[in-house]
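User: I'm putting together a small comparison set for a docking exercise, and I want a reference complex before I start. The sequence is below, and the ligand is uracil. Could you produce the 3D structure with the ligand included, as structure tokens?
Assistant: Of course. I'll restate your input first, then give the structure tokens for the complex.
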Amino acid sequence: MRAYDIIEKKRNNDELTSEEIKFFINGYIDNEIADYQMSAFLMAVYFNGMTDEECKTLTECMLHSGEVMDLSPIKGIKVDKHSTGGVGDKTTLIVTPIVAACGTKVAKMSGRGLGHTGGTVDKLCSIPGMNVEISRNRFFDIVNTVGCCLMSQSGNLVPADKKIYALRDVTATVESMPLIASSIMSKKIASGADCIVLDVKVGSGAFMKTKEDAISLSKIMISIGKKFNKKVIALITDMDIPLGNAIGNSLEVWESCEVLRGRGPKDLRDVSISLAANMLYLSGKGTIDECEHFARSAIDSGKAFEKFKEMVSAQGGNLSLIEKSDYLDCLEEHKFEIYSDDDGYIFKMDTEKIGKAAMILGAGREKKDDIIDYNAGIILNKKTGDKVTKDEVLAVFYSSSKEKFVEAEKIFKEAIKFDKNKPEYVSLIQAKITLDDVQIF
Ligand code: URA
């Protein structure tokens, strides 16, 4: 077999055999196939796509490139969730303790953020003392005793994805459905949970810009899950507006705690309850309506917040930040208010640009080794659909470097479009995809 022939076959839009895909992916991992050949292959996939069978074989090759977690030391059914990435998306911090408080185990590995979207691990690291690099045995122990644990993704989990993703990033081949599906699902399957709820984001801040594309991506991922005996449900959720009002690590931890305290923004609470309900449903806790009721009650009774604090304590985190409902007041000296130049309704927000403004403030990394300013970020006072008068405060910026405020303000203001008319309401949860059903909301 020759790499050249496989690239040519994919370029000509012919279906590859399992042997050909295995030869190519394994050859690349073993450094027998060069970056330039993999780049050509990725571009051929970008333009011609892959059949379901090809995509499943690709996922399988990636999955077996490293360690596959065996979660059997944890008793009972384990559920996981994954978001395809968004701005202000802190739902993992909220749904994990809700689900655990309802009696289903969550053993979750999360990643760091890069670019305009934040990573759960970075948010957790903004809690002083919080340890996300824990041993396997400690991880199993915490999940068995507390019910949930969030740890950093092991370096040996799907190394093929790391190598291929780095190449996709510099060859303009990230936005390919089979490549995204195999990248996400290989990591989820390797993480070992029995059931997975996918939060597939759609909109200006997401990889998928249309609902149709988000549905197609979900269907591919669900069918990959079935091949590996995983129960998978996907919710398509809106990313044309940042989720919640806080963007930036410690700000998002604070806002998540607010939701767990029964406060916080309604959009964030609603998406979190839906995700948690679907996780509980997949683990067999009841009908979807019953599970939604369990999730709400876990917040209202304070049990979910207690569970979150239990998990943070078990991972060495200091609870003082978490217990401060008035946490934002402690950041007063680094604050910068952004005033509106216009009157009218906010008609549109470019979520990606807002994420970039937060990144400039220090909340995210542009390059892999950049250091994060955990207290940097944005609190949005106004969002799409809100009426604003000139000189009203649109948002509050936080950063330890005051010189970053001007550049971030410029990008932030470019991201917001005003109109005299109120925009049409877009439903937050746009669709739910299961193995045999597509529900559009
Ligand atoms: N998230 C991933 O893990 N992989 C992709 O390819 C895109 C989003």
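The longest helix spans residues 211-227. The chain has 17 helices and 14 strands.
User: Thanks, that's exactly what I needed.
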